[in-house]
Design goal:
This protein is α+β, with helices and mostly antiparallel strands. The chain is built from 15 helices and 16 strands. The longest helix has 20 residues. 35% of the residues are buried.
Length: 461
């Protein structure tokens, strides 16, 4: 029997604001716990929250980038539950009218984007204690809820990679999953009928894109086995343990939260000037950029890598004018491949010198072999591009014609093949010349010369 998987994603993204969502405590990474706290984010009685304008601006910018409907008036609600990481006993979030509705990402509908606040960070010790760090409590957070429209783990991953890329390019979040700045909960259900949803299972505790994909695959298999036995899938929350999913002890359902409008916060009304300011944050989106690179002749898989990472994009945009296709190939296939082996990063590389080096190559001043050799030496031995340019062998000085003529004379069989139209023969001769001169000659010129001399040889026989 065939079952249709339906997947929904709930993503939390920490916003890169200067201060917290409802107080002026700074947002950042701290060595010491509980240093960025105040009576507001500690939930002391008598304090009043004040919404962070910049967080609102960021939410609107994301909504606009993803073609969502921006609510000119939205509301803050209290989501009540008791948990040690929540000093107030409730989280301020949005409920009936979120700030953004009905957005789209790679064809998947985003039902809502809620503006809310982070909880504290809890640390479980080996002795069984729970330590709490309230530095994170109250950091602005976006909750991005997709419609259950995703059909596979691959599609889920593509959606997440795109979302991460968009928030990074907008500059509203660093979205590092390993730092908890982007977190994902997954809903998976299976049904024999593509029009009717099965019982959904929520999986929490996913801290990498791979974990998301693995958990989806695992749930699809687990639920299929249950359904094939003729049993029902229990609607529940499970957690990912690295190998599989297991039931979570706490049971939470929407009705338990007793949502009600926060009496301390008036409706959130967006002014024209704020919306205009948010429009000013919009940038070219990664898939638009990928398309632009493809138009320049860059293969699709390379264009995607270059277009989705802000640091790579910055580097590539600066050098692509030399030759979009060649630069994409050199950066991704030659340079980045070696970075991991040499444990280097993008900032360790002399991109300015590299650009001049490749430009000089393009002007026909040295061979492709020397180009690659030079990059290798810069990476492995730290030889500067300036020195590499000075040491570049002068191609023009080497005359390969006498050698090539002799070679052609010594291979009459090959000349016959060429006469019959076997073009591969040209490559054979070019290879011989390149080997002899160890890449110090321009292969394009050698090829031209070889073709001319072969045609000459055919005419003379
Ligand atoms: Zn505070």
């Amino acid at each position: 029997m065939r079952f249709h998987p339906t997947i929904g994603l709930e993503v939390h993204v920490e916003l890169k604001t200067v201060s917290k969502m409802f107080c002026s405590c700074p947002v950042g990474e701290w060595d010491e716990p509980n240093v960025a706290v105040c009576p507001v984010c500690m939930g002391h009685p008598g304090t009043l929250p004040v919404p962070n304008r910049r967080a609102v601006l960021f939410a609107v910018a994301l909504g606009l980038a993803l073609k969502g409907r921006i609510a000119r008036t939205s509301h803050f609600y209290r989501k009540n539950y008791f948990y040690p990481d929540l000093p107030k006993g409730y989280q301020i979030t949005q409920y009936s009218v979120p700030i953004v509705q009905d957005a789209r990402l790679l064809g998947v509908q985003i039902e809502r984007i809620n503006l809310e606040e982070e909880t504290a960070k809890s640390l479980h010790t080996e002795t069984g204690h729970v330590l709490l760090d309230f530095n994170r409590a109250g950091v602005p957070l976006l909750e991005i809820v997709s419609a259950p429209e995703i059909r596979s783990s691959q599609q889920a991953k593509e959606y997440l990679v795109a979302l991460q890329s968009v928030v990074r390019f907008l500059g509203i979040s660093d979205a590092h999953m390993e730092k908890g700045q982007l977190r994902v909960d997954v809903n998976v259900s299976l049904s024999p009928d593509s029009q009717i949803l099965g019982n959904k299972v929520e999986v929490k505790n996913l801290n990498s894109f791979k974990a998301v994909a693995d958990a989806i695959e695992y749930e699809i298999k687990r639920q299929r086995t249950i359904l094939e036995r003729g049993e029902r899938v229990i609607q529940e929350t499970r957690m990912w343990n690295g190998k599989g999913t297991e039931p979570m002890r706490t049971k939470e359902t929407a009705s338990d939260y007793r949502f009600f409008p926060d009496p301390d916060l008036p409706p959130l009304v967006l002014t024209d000037s704020l919306i205009e300011e948010a429009k000013g944050l919009l940038v070219e989106l990664p898939w638009e950029r990928q398309f632009r690179y493809e138009e320049e002749g860059v293969p699709s898989h390379l264009a995607k890598v270059l277009a989705y990472d802000p640091e790579l994009t910055r580097i590539y945009e600066d050098v692509m004018e030399i030759d979009p296709k060649l630069m994409a190939d050199l950066i991704l296939n030659v340079i980045l491949g070696k970075f991991s082996k040499l444990s280097k990063s993008l900032s360790d590389f002399d991109w300015k010198g590299f650009k001049v080096f490749v430009k000089t190559f393009k002007e026909g001043n040295f061979t492709r072999e020397y180009l690659k050799e030079g990059i290798d030496r810069h990476l492995a031995e730290g030889v500067s591009f300036e020195r590499l340019l000075k040491e570049a062998p002068q191609m023009e000085e080497i005359d390969v014609e006498p050698f090539l003529r002799e070679l052609i004379v010594s291979k009459p069989q090959e000349v016959k093949k060429f006469a019959k139209g076997q073009r591969g023969v040209v490559g054979f001769f070019v290879g011989q010349v390149m080997r002899k001169y160890r890449g110090k000659v321009d292969p394009r010129k050698v090829r031209e010369l070889t073709e001319r001399l072969l045609e000459e040889a055919v005419e003379n026989t």
